[in-house]
Amino acid sequence: MATIKAAILGFGTVGQGIYHILNEKREELKHKLGIELEVAKILVTDASRERVPGTAHLMTTSMDEVLAEPGMQVVFEAIVNEEPAFGYLKRAVEHKCHVITANKVMFAKRGLELQELAKANGVFVGFEATTAGGVPVIKTMKNILLVNDVSRIQGILNGTSNYILTKMRAQGWSFEKALKEAQNLGYAEADPYNDVSGQDAFKKLMILSALAFGEQPDWADVEVIGIDCISAEQVKDACEKGLRYRHVAEVEKLANGKVVAKVGPQLVDKEHPLYPVDDVNNAVALETNYIGTLTLVGPGAGMYPTASVMVEDYAEIIGKRAGFVVSI
Ligand SMILES: NC(=O)C1=CN([C@@H]2O[C@H](COP(=O)(O)OP(=O)(O)OC[C@H]3O[C@@H](n4cnc5c(N)ncnc54)[C@H](OP(=O)(O)O)[C@@H]3O)[C@@H](O)[C@H]2O)C=CC1
Ligand SMILES: N[C@@H](CC=O)C(=O)O
Predict the structure, then answer these.
(1) Which residues bind NADP(+) (predicted)?
(2) What is the pTM of this model?
(3) What is the ipTM of this complex?
């Protein structure tokens, strides 16, 4: 049986999740895909710290070393920020590696460029994990778009914000306590300002916009407000009135063809579809011409939901390359 090698760039919450799932599902994936996958390199900033027992020999800080590994064909990327992530993935694609990323900061800005480069090099880019964690919105939208037009997307796209709002309302926790717990649970970004300021949801919305409409609105035209402007008193007042705060991101294509978007907190009542979406869950409602409105709900952050969709991307890519449809 053929063996291919993979690298994991970034070995924090998501990177470790990928490693654990690939180990746990090793035999099953081998059987289903007819290919053995070996994690041969793990790239971090500090290679002296062994995060998972038995991985010290895989650690490196050098992308040159990753790409010099014979048989390297798949690169999972779970680091932070646009650079060096984009530069690393560009090099991986030029080296004819398939790449699978969770990095929405990079992908919102450079995703179209990376996909074009991948096409030119005959490799695939998986980016399901960039948006809504474990919710399969990217693959669902790709399928829908084969037949339908999507006219509007509305959703909760940041798990940390939804978790904080839920705990403030349902448990009476302070904003700080809820954020701390979201960090402990691996939901929050390395810099949680991105979560609570609305920037993380904005980046995910831009990825969905590019997929649905082939374009993004001018970023400067999009109003982005976070949950950091909501006080405990406001959450309590809303609750007493039967209302809930939700952090909502929405983008639509107007009749004149212009794509417009906004991101910010909204008060919703119990008739609203986002009312029951609590904790770390995300929800994405896609308005389409034939299906009508399709809503997906599920965990929007965390080690296993995120890593799981990245391994699914891997299975899909290897299945396509081998010319068969993967059914897991
Ligand atoms: N956490 C989640 O639920 C989700 C996260 N994501 C995205 O996944 C990515 C990773 O998130 P997460 O695992 O939570 O982050 P962590 O902060 O837990 O881990 C980040 C990892 O990246 C490494 N790293 C950071 N900068 C560099 C660099 N310049 N070169 C090499 N390695 C680097 C760090 O190395 P070191 O250990 O040495 O510091 C660390 O291992 C982010 O882009 C995030 O937005 C997407 C969906 C959900
Ligand atoms: N910090 C993000 C992680 C997933 O993208 C979130 O809370 O949604």
Answers:
(1) 10-15
(2) 0.97
(3) 0.99
